[in-house]
Specification:
mainly alpha
Amino acid sequence: MWDRGPWIGPTPVSILPSRPVPDGQVEPARSRTPVAYPESMTSDERPHRPVPRADLSALAGAVEDLEPFAREELAAATAAAVITHGRSSGTSLVDLADRVGLDTLAELWRTQQPSSLPGALWALYLLRRWCRGHGDEVTRLWRAGRPYAPADEVVAGVSEAADPAAMADLADAVLHGAYHGDFDVALERAAAFFRVVASGRRELAPDDAAGARERLLADRNDEVADGLTMAAQLWREHPL
């Protein structure tokens, strides 16, 4: 279910499931502060050992038993471990979702905002799955949107062919840049890509209920783009 392109990024807070509380009332889902990295985390507290694949799976399996704040801490810690390992070891983690399973990353990161490190990584891995699994759809939206977002088209850096293979190459290049280049630049490329796709959704949306849904999805794509842009700025201010 996580390879559905329209839901790239965390599930909107407004539709996150509420959690029951002891007295029988319902605690609404909480909004989250868009912080890319916990500024209070000292160098001694930051993870230095990479999280093995088995550890990621085990941690994902324990998420449901955690309180919301503990979930956020776990998401931040695992994302920091992944990005630190990927950027310092030379190991390619572009295909991490293929190795550990996208569901594992979803359990750990999908409820975090795209302005946070775990939310940003989740968006990048889901973008890769979407581009690889739904290349024709992505291509159609991209081609429809790029005339309305020429600056974002340049920043995203999709090849002139703009075919399904080019979309897959873009997603791989963004993740490769996240680990082996400038992380903030990779985030800005992904943000630009989402803005072009959002423009394409609006351009192709018909004047009916299906079109209204597409316009809502375009708004969601823009929200993810804005979050990734904020994450890029926060990375420049507080890189790991």
